[in-house]
Write a structure and sequence with these properties.
alpha/beta; Rossmann fold; globular; 5-stranded parallel beta sheet; 7 strands
C-alpha cells in the first residue's frame, strides 16, 4: 500500500482491523499485512485517535454536553461494548468519540469501551461474536447499530438485499437473546443511518457494484424499532434523504455525522 497517499491509507486503515478476528496479531504483524512500516501504522492510528479526541472536546464545549456525559448511567469500572459494522468499526466512529468523551470527562471512572464493530458484516455474521467473543468481555452495556449491510445489494439489476427483512428480524431477536442469556448487559439499539445512493455509486473508495437504497435501510430501521429495549433514532436525525454533510461517501458518516450520532446517544441515555 506504499503507493497510496497518506489520506488514502488513512481512509483504508480506519475500517480495517484484522486483530478483531485474530487477537494474536501485533501492530508489527498488522502493518506487515498492509505492506507498510509499523511506524506508519502507529502514526495513522495516533492521528485518528487525535481526531476523535478533538471531536469529543468540541462536543464538550457545547452547552449541556459535559453534564450529559456525567449523567450517563455507566457505573465506574463498567464495560461498554459497541456492536456493529463499519460505521462502528471506524476509528472516527461515534463509539470512539464516546470513548474519548468518557476519558476526558470521567477519567477516574475507568470505564472500558470495546469496539466490536467489524466492517462489512451483516447481522447473520454477528452471531458468533455475541455468543462467544462479546459474552467473554462480560459487558455491562451493549450498544448495537446493526443491519446496514443486510440492506446491501449487488449489481445494477439487484433483485434483493443481501439479507431479507424477515431474516434480519429473526437475527436481531437472536442477537438480543444471546446477550440476555449469556451476559447481564443492558442493551441499547440504534437505527441505521440513511444513505445517498448516487454518491455511493460515484465515490472512488466504494467497491464497484455495491449499492444501498433508502427504502431497504428504512425497512431495517423499522425492524430495529420493533425490538425490545431502548432505541436511539438516527433516521430522522440525519434526514431522508440525509444531509450531504453527514455522509462523506454516501454510506459512511463523516466526522460531523459521527458526532451527531454520539450526541444522539448522549441525549437518549442521559
Amino acid at each position: 500500500m506504499s503507493e497510496l497517499s497518506h489520506e488514502q491509507l488513512t481512509a483504508y486503515l480506519r475500517y480495517s482491523h484484522p486483530e478483531k478476528t485474530n487477537p494474536a496479531l501485533t501492530e508489527t504483524a498488522i502493518a506487515a499485512l498492509f505492506g507498510i512500516p509499523v511506524e506508519t501504522y502507529r502514526q495513522v492510528k495516533a492521528e485518528c485517535a487525535a481526531v476523535t479526541r478533538q471531536a469529543a472536546a468540541e462536543l464538550l464545549a457545547e452547552p449541556d454536553v459535559a453534564a450529559r456525559v456525567m449523567r450517563l448511567p455507566f457505573a465506574p469500572g463498567s464495560t461498554i461494548v459497541g456492536l456493529g459494522d463499519s460505521i462502528t468499526d471506524d476509528w472516527h466512529s461515534w463509539l470512539e468519540i464516546l470513548r474519548a468523551l468518557l476519558d476526558l470527562q470521567r477519567p477516574d471512572d475507568h470505564i472500558r469501551v470495546v469496539n466490536a464493530g467489524i466492517s462489512g458484516q451483516t447481522t447473520t455474521q454477528m452471531f458468533y461474536r455475541v455468543f462467544y467473543d462479546i459474552a467473554a468481555e462480560k459487558p455491562d452495556w451493549i450498544i448495537c447499530m446493526a443491519g446496514t449491510n443486510d440492506a446491501r445489494r449487488y449489481g445494477d439489476k439487484a433483485l434483493k438485499p443481501e439479507v431479507s427483512p424477515e431474516e434480519t428480524e429473526k437475527n436481531l431477536a437472536q442477537l438480543r437473546d444471546f446477550a440476555a442469556t449469556r451476559t447481564s448487559a443492558r442493551w441499547v439499539w440504534m437505527t441505521p443511518t440513511p444513505v445517498i445512493p448516487d454518491r455511493i455509486r460515484s465515490h472512488g473508495d466504494m467497491a464497484p457494484g455495491l449499492i444501498w437504497l433508502n427504502e431497504d435501510v428504512a425497512r431495517v430501521a423499522d425492524i430495529v424499532r420493533r425490538q425490545k429495549g431502548p432505541v436511539v433514532e438516527l433516521q430522522h436525525l440525519f434526514g431522508v434523504p440525509p444531509h450531504p454533510d453527514y455522509l462523506y461517501d454516501g454510506l459512511h458518516p463523516s466526522l460531523a455525522g459521527q458526532k451527531l450520532i454520539a450526541r444522539a446517544l448522549l441525549e437518549a441515555l442521559s
